[in-house]
Amino acid sequence: MGDTILPWLHMDCTSKEASEERMLAAKEELHGKDGLFFVRPRKSKKGNADYVMVILYKGKPTHHLLQKPSKYWLINSKQYGEFETLEELVFGMRTKHKGFPVILYDFVPNSATSDTPTTDRSTTTTPISIDNDTHSPQQQPSIKQQSDGAEVTVSGQQQQMQQQQMQQKQMQQKQQQQQMQQ
Questions:
Q1: Bridge partners, residue 135, by sequence
Q2: Tens digits of per-residue pLDDT, 37-78?
């Protein structure tokens, strides 16, 4: 995945048990309610690099298989929209979809983005798509909306620079917090 960091993607969490522990800890730490989520990798028996979306529902972690057998992503083998990238799927599920029991409202941040949760989850991260043959993520240009309403296409290099700047700011904030605690 290179330098791309999707704050809701937990590449280090690969088992159902570990994901349940992580979700229950986040539920306590973030005062989570239904719709709290993160995505983790799953190795399928066919060798595909599928994912699992772990969602807090009725106070308990639930597990939903994410696959892309063709052009669009599926959740539990059902298509809920025309989502071509994993990121589109995640952000698209922040609205009500007939047949899906919960709206995604907030994510559990992964360890690469922050140890401390932020309240502003509206920032756009770098879209990725998964190549069906290799199942490797591919960066795509992102369209971001400026405060004046104009849309700007941002290249992969620009996105990486922005991600690196964001990471540096987060590290500086973390160091400042640690210094203040001492």
A1: none
A2: 999 998 777 766 689 999 999 999 999 999 999 899 999 999
How far apart CA 62 and CA 122 sit, in angstroms, is 24
User: What pLDDT was estimated at residue 14?
Assistant: 85
Cβ within 8 Å of residue 144, ≥6 positions away: 124, 151, 152, 154
Q: What is the pLDDT of residue 82?
A: 94
The tally of CA atoms less than 13 A away on the side-chain side of residue 92 is 19
CA distance to 1, 69, 92, 114, 135, per residue, from 50 (Å): 14, 10, 18, 25, 8
pTM for this prediction: 0.62
pLDDT tens readout for residues 79-104: 999 999 999 999 999 999 999 999 99
Task: Give the burial string for 80-99 (b: 16+ CB within 10 Å, else e).
Answer: beebbbbbbbbbbbeeebee
Residue whose structure tokens are 């190549």: 131
